[in-house]
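User: I'm writing a tutorial on reading structure tokens. Could you give me a worked example: one chain, its sequence, then its tokens, then a sentence or two explaining what the tokens reveal?
Assistant: Sure. Here is the example chain.
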Amino acid sequence: MKKHLTIALVAHDQRKADMVAWAKFNASLLSKHHLVCTGTTGGLIKKAFDELGIKADVQCMNSGPMGGDAEIAAMVVRNEVDLAVFLIDDLNPQPHEADIQMLLRQCRLHNVPIACNRISADLMISSSLWDDDTYQPTEQTYVKFDR
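And here are its predicted structure tokens:
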């Protein structure tokens, strides 16, 4: 697998504090990779890393409601994202729900691991498989299962 990853980071407003805390906890690891974020989330992560004195490659897209989720979904389709962390606010309706579902669907369809809570993000980012040169993810198949 790749040593240098492109990691997408997306967080709804009510989950941004969780994302910043998660990014700070994993800052030394995340700083070794290219981070692609929706606009506001990326700005908060840049600020948090600056406060920690950590240099990081953080690319900000548009905010989610302005198309940032869709921009990241397009990157997934182009095989430009290795891992996504999307902290979703499941308690409040989102005006751009279609874009959210599109990003989740494209990650599933294109075999991109996506974490939707901090524990799954911790498990995915720390997996030894990222460092295993012999590991190759199995291609997904979409065929009818015959017994």
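What the tokens reveal: The first helix runs from residue 16 to 25. The chain is about 40% helix and 15% strand.
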